Amino acid sequence: MKKTDIDEFFRRLAEANPDPKGELDYINRYTLLVAVVLSAQATDVSVNKATRGLFAVADTPEKMLALGEAKLREHISQIGLYNAKARNVIALSRLLLERHGGEVPGNREALEALPGVGRKTANVVLNVAFGESTIAVDTHIFRLGNRTGLAPGKTPLEVESGLIRRTPDRWKRHAHHWLILHGRYVCQARKPRCAACVVADLCGYQAKIFE
User: Using CA atoms, how far apart are residues 74 and 63, in angstroms rounded to an integer?
Assistant: First the structure.
C-alpha cells in the first residue's frame, strides 16, 4: 500500500470515528492493566462482565491483595485461563507495591517485567493510560495488517514494526483503536464486510466480498 493510500486509509477511519475508544471497562491505570491481562484469549464482553464486580471491591493493588487469590478466582472464573490469570494479577499487584509504590509504571521495560504482561499488554497500557503512540497487535490487527497490505508480516512484532514505520505520525495516537475496531466489526476473519468498509478501494485484499 502506497504512503498516500495509507494516509487516506487512516483519514477515513478517523472521519468515521473521530474519538475511538477501547471496549474494556476500567476505572484507573491499575484496573486498565488488570483488565488487559485478563483479556488475553478472552472477549472484552466476558472480561467486563467479570470485572464489574471485581473492580467494585478491588481497584488498587492493596485491595486486590486483601481480596486474595481464591476470591479473585471466583470473580473471574468465567474467563479462560482464570487460574493462571488470578496468580498473575496477585503477583503483579504485589510487585507494583514493592517496586513502584503501587503505581502502574509508564515504561515498557518495567511493565513487561510484571507477571502476565507481554508486549501487547504493555502497548495497550502505554497507549491508553500514558498517551504513547504504541500499536498493540492482537489477532484483529494482525489479520488486517496482512489482508489489506497495510503492514504485512509473519509475526505480530513484524506487523507492529511495519505499522509504526508506515503509519503517518498524525494518526499514530489512535491507530491502535481504529484498527482493532475495524478488524472486529468490519474486516472480520471469516467473512469481511467489504460492502460496509470505508477503505475497501484502498485495500489490497483480492477476495473482497460485496454481498
Answer: 16
pLDDT band (50, 70, 90) for residue 41:
confident
The grid coordinates of residue 84 equal 493462571
CATH of domain 29-130: 1.10.340.30
Measure the CA angle with vertex 199, ends 194 and 201; round to 5°: 80
Residue 202's region, left for phi above 0, alpha for psi from -120 to 50, else beta, is alpha
Angle between helix axes 82-100 and 29-38 (nearest 10 degrees) is 150
Query: What per-residue confidence (pLDDT) applies to 207?
Result: 79
CATH of domain 3-20+134-202: 1.10.1670.10
CA distance 125 to 208: 34
Q: Decide: 107 and 131 in contact? Cβ < 8 Å.
A: no
- How remote is the C-alpha of 104 from its chain's centroid? 17
- For helices 29-38 and 44-57, the axis angle rounded to 10 degrees is 140
Which residues are the active-site residues?
A: 120, 138
